[in-house]
Amino acid sequence: MQKLMIVLAAVIAAAIGVASYQLWPKAEPEALVYQPPRAPAPFQLQSTESPDAINNQALKGQWTLLFTGYTFCPDICPTTMSDLKNALPNLQQHTDTPVKVWMISVDPKRDSMERLKEYTGYFGDAFVGIRAEHPQLFPFVRDLGLMYSVPEEGEENYLVNHSAAIILVNPDGNRIAIFNADHQAGKIPVVDMEQLKRDFAIIAG
Fold first, then answer.
1. Could you tell me which of 91, 94, 95, 111 has the C-alpha nearest to residue 103?
2. pLDDT digits (tens, 9 = 90+) for 50-80
3. Residue 73 annotated as binding site
4. Which CATH number is correct for 28-150+158-204, 3.40.640.10, 3.40.30.10, 2.40.128.110, 3.40.50.300?
5. 25 pLDDT band (50/70/90 cuts)?
6. What pTM value is reported for the model?
7. Which residues participate in Cu cation binding (predicted)?
8. Please, is 150 exposed, middle or buried when counting C-beta atoms within 10 Å of its C-beta (0-12, 13-18, 19+)?
9. Binding site annotation covers 162?
10. Exposure pattern of 106-140 as b/e (b: 16+ CB <10 Å)?
11. 94 annotated as a binding-site residue
12. How many CB atoms lie within 10 A of CB 191?
């Protein structure tokens, strides 16, 4: 009888534990999560990873963090690249699928494939440089929900205004979240990497 009571007590305790777990509020990402995930419009781009043009298939089979930038960028881009390099080991702990970063150059006039390859290569093998001429580039960037400015014809030394947000694409090749930059007076607008790491763990888990 005593053994039966012990078994019943264990079963009840387990049932309460399961019920408590199911009722306990689950953590929600702070980022904007797309429900359902959104497929990017068809694209043809150049990549430092491939000698041939790439399309939507290149986003499949991996988690991809996309952001707009350019190699002559003085602040947002190198800061974001460095922050992502430091964050990648943490992100990779939450998934068996590779995590990559696409830096989409919004300065095709000055960012050749050779320059992009050298620039992204400095940060590691997980970093990929993406480029295209404006007729292909602008629709791709706009479809992601990002933006950039095109310099006036004939300008040589110029800055390119562009979004500082980061888009997360899932292994199915669909946009699943956007991490907006934190805008504070007197500071470079960059994404909060601690929030990105927390949210990625929830989304990829």
1. 111
2. 999 999 999 999 999 999 999 999 999 999 9
3. yes
4. 3.40.30.10
5. low
6. 0.85
7. 73, 77, 162
8. middle
9. yes
10. bbbeebeeebbbebbeebeebbbbbbbeeebbeeb
11. no
12. 24
